[in-house]
Amino acid sequence: MVTIAEPIAKPASRFRYFLDRREVLGAIFVAPAILYVLLLVGVPFLLAVYYSVSAYTIYDPSWRFVGLANFRQIVSDPVFQETLGNTFVFTFGSQLLGLILGKFGAFLLLRPFPGHKIVRAVIILPWAVPIALATVAWEWMFDSLYSVINWTMITLGIITRSEAPNWLGNPHLAMLCVIVVNAWRFFPFAIVIFLAGITSVSQDIIDAATVDGAGFWRRNYQIILPIILPIVAVGLIFGIVFTFTDLSVVYLLTNGGPVNATSVLGFEGFQVGIVSGDVSHGAAISLFMLPVLLLVVVGMLRYIRRREIV
Amino acid sequence: MRRTIARIGKDVAFYMAVAFFVVLAAFPFYWMLITSLKSNPDLYNVTNIPFWFNEAPTLEHFRYLFEQTLFTRWLSNSLTIGVCVVVITLLAALPAGYSLARMTGRSGEALGIGIFLTYLVPPTLLFLPLSRIIADLGLQNSMWSLVLVYPTFTIPFCTWLLMGFFKAMPVEIEEAAIVDGCSLFGAFIRMVIPLSLPAILTAVIFTFTLTLQEFIYALTFISASDQKPITLGVATDLVRGDIFFWGEIMAGALIASIPVAIAYNLFLDRFISGITGGAVK
Prior knowledge:
heterodimer; A: mainly alpha; MetI-like fold; 2 domains; B: mainly alpha; two-stranded antiparallel ribbon; 14 helices
């Protein structure tokens, strides 16, 4: 009984009463997270925007405003034009390949078979393991002299040693390599997303469709796919955003080469802004990612919203 | 008879397709393993069969990695970074996720989506200004810069993950605690947190693996060898000039990969329901 009366006598009671109001405590609870994100994502983002319209370099930290001059210079630079094109090829190539592998893999894993769990665990590996480390393993597999891929092809008699391709030394092959490695990294994620979607579709719907005479393709593409599309859309946001802005695969596998053939926006921003210290141009290059990111995110969010209402 | 043959044919095709996926996913890791255990003369002989040992396997690469390189230092750096980031992340994301889950109306939802979207702001957009901020704080070339920066993506990620979990938790539990004399804050500490330990564990595991997987910020902020986390160290520091220490690189990559691979497999289902939670409801 005493304990009930006690809090009122404490000097902290007013404060405690204050804390017991849901909206006050709620605000205090979100504040640290929001502050952290505002200070270390929001502020840097605004800084990046300002860098891109200034003449700031690590040698001349003057913050002089130069308007859109940086962007004008970048756009007329042939290296940048190539980089921009590469980024799109890299992103859509690897997402398409990853999605195809993912859809196909999910289709396989839907069917129960002995060892199902182990197979799933193994297939998850490329996505789970740090991409930088897996990329180094691929680099070793693409080695100009000791490539296991070339060895296999030579031994099978497909090519001779003199014809053995230099995977990372040929501009087209190098682009193919970074796309394959990135698709390899993402296909398990696509499988998992497809699986999560398909298993969430109730069996009743599929049964009803079957009874109504829907065949395999019709069930897949006109019943299941539309239902799981919101989940697939979320997966695609992740895939596109992380691929479009990535630099680790390119940095480790080809270092943008040969002769900028695999240079992508993130990588070029790093080269110009960090390695060469030309911060303003680097920031301008990085900012070219923004319109695409915004488009993808806004488009997908609107799409998801609309589906929820239906 | 014909039907049996057709069925067997279908099964064979099915298992071949499964085998294709397994080989595709696992071969690079098999390649790490076999490379890390081969002696150098075996490794650098183009006439040798690369898939198996032509000479006796050796632990020489592992010994060199642990004794002659900074590998153990990178391991402990990654551990320190991971633990610090987990603590910071939980302190911020746990109350935030709870608060956003209990916030009613449009503003709570919008705030939640807003926090989640910051997870999608890429490092390659922020690394230039962040490296300036880190230099101003005197943290350049120090692993503490990563402790400061990594929560920028782990907090949004975990807030989202925990928010989904708290939403599924009935409000009645806290209300009962409040009726029993708990303050709102007390109900959170004494009822909500103990009941959400599985979700917290998931958040801890994924925060830790996210810090291990990160490469871009580490590459940007740290060039001193002894400050590197394990992923950066193995990928960039085991090269002398043009010479790659392939055996050591693969050994290091393998050691760093194993814990992440296990963690992902154990917590995969929760991860998926976490990130797709907003879309399926």
